[in-house]
Specification:
Helix content: 40-55%
Number of helices: 8
Order of helices and strands: HHHHHHHH
Distance between the termini: 67 Å
Largest sheet: none
Strand content: under 5%
Oligomer: single chain
Shape: elongated
Structural class: mainly alpha
């Protein structure tokens, strides 16, 4: 029976922690090519070593960025993140929107004004009003959560009681 390729546990762990370097083949730094300790798949280690190479070993930013498979801009971003938050700041953030980006303060104020005028408006009605006024689609549940967060209104159900 032929042996099946099993996923590498370290690769899977790096992927799960969002620290898998998407381009390990671009890392050409000598330490990563010759030593078992350095792993070009480990994005945090690669970024840390890139910054360390400039700050401690005196390499130029361009040379270090190129040897570690990054741009100069990426070097400066990694250096700033390291200064601001330590090693943990080198872990990429979760992808996707951060918070209620469609429900700006202006939109929330409009919602409050509508509710002050007519407290019986349901989140679906508010979503329709937002679409008409701001040309943006917002899910009724997002409106409920935003109102709850801002403590302006109690949690509102999408069902109308009769």
């Amino acid at each position: 029976m032929p042996r099946q390729n099993r996923p590498d546990p370290k690769t899977e762990a790096l992927r799960a922690s969002r620290t898998l370097n998407p381009r390990p083949q671009d890392v050409t730094d000598e330490a990563f090519l010759s030593a078992d300790f350095f792993d070009p798949r480990d994005l945090v280690q690669v970024k840390y070593e890139m910054v360390r190479r400039v700050r401690e070993d005196g390499a130029s930013v361009s040379t270090a960025a190129s040897a570690f498979g990054f741009s100069r801009q990426s070097f400066y971003q990694a250096a700033a993140a390291l200064d601001e938050g330590g090693l943990a700041a080198l872990v990429p953030a979760k992808p996707g929107p951060r918070g209620a980006h469609k429900l700006t303060p202006e939109v929330l104020e409009h919602i409050r004004m509508l509710l002050a005028t007519d407290p019986s408006l349901r989140p679906a009605d508010l979503a329709q009003a937002i679409a008409e006024r701001f040309s943006r689609r917002v899910h009724p549940r997002s409106i409920e959560r935003a109102l709850k967060r801002s403590s302006q209104e109690p949690d509102r159900s999408t069902k109308r009681s009769r």
